[in-house]
Amino acid sequence: QQQVKQSPQSLIVQKGGISIINCAYENTAFDYFPWYQQFPGKGPALLIAIRPDVSEKKEGRFTISFNKSAKQFSLHIMDSQPGDSATYFCAASSRETSGSRLTFGEGTQLTVNP
Amino acid sequence: EAQVTQNPRYLITVTGKKLTVTCSQNMNHEYMSWYRQDPGLGLRQIYYSMNVEVTDKGDVPEGYKVSRKEKRNFPLILESPSPNQTSLYFCASSLSAGVYGYTFGSGTRLTVV
Q1: Which of its termini does chain B have fewer beta carbons within 10 Å around, N or C?
Q2: Mean pLDDT computed over every residue of chain B
């Protein structure tokens, strides 16, 4: 049972465009929502994270939007670049388990064409 | 350099032959975890450890064992590997789970024939 559902599975964007990846969750106890970026042959690396007390967090070209009532959150990549081509994973964890159980979405393979 | 080191990077083995994948971190992190990555399924947690001698099951623990005798090391043991354990495995560590992000190793691609 996938507790965090991610879409789309793959995404192709032109250079300079906006990439949007969406995630939805069921467990209302989740209180930490990170995004990870993975390049081929590498392990995932933390990109940006948000807690439910804010609706948006921005770091450079990357923004997380969070909708607590809808139990959804999304990653927006502005001015997408070919170097952003990677697999992106959303994830969630709960304070109830001391954050020990980080649940990942299925992943989105992003391709940014030059 | 702060890192999580996994060995080996690639492994092909036969069904039933016991194997160990090692994981070591040099950041004095308390929390460590093992994940497997399969296409279309994302990363699924196998086992995790909140500290030395403290381990617990994740979402897919069947067929795996772990131990945490030292803070820096968290080996993954497959006592009797089967073909359905063919996967890409990642070890991760964190200063404090749920507060700080995870640092992942570079992965171990395991094939069981």
Answers
A1: N
A2: 95
Burial of B70 per CB tally in 10 Å (0-12, 13-18, 19+): exposed
Long-range CB pairs of B79-85 (<8 Å, 24+ gap) are B79/B18, B80/B15, B80/B16, B80/B18, B81/B13, B81/B14, B81/B15, B81/B16, B81/B17, B81/B18, B81/B19, B81/B110, B81/B112, B82/B15, B82/B16, B82/B112, B83/B15, B83/B112, B83/B113, B84/B112, B85/B110, B85/B112
Selected for mutation to probe chain B from A102, A104, A109 (highest B CB count within 10 Å) is: A102
CA distance A79 to chain B (A): 25
Quote the minimal CA–CA distance from A96 to chain B in Å.
10
Residue-by-residue DSSP string for B46-84: EEEEEETTEEEE-S--TT-EE--SSSSB--EEESS--GG
Beta-carbon contacts of residue B62 (< 8 Å; ≥ 6 apart): none
> Which residue in the block uniquely carries the two structure tokens 């964007």?
A13
A-chain residues near B48 (CB < 8 A): 100-101
The pLDDT of residue A91 is above 90: yes
8 Å CB contact of B105 and A43: yes
CB of B51 within 8 Å of a chain A CB? The answer is: no
pLDDT digits 0-9 by tens, B20-69: 999 999 999 999 999 999 998 999 999 999 999 999 999 999 999 999 99
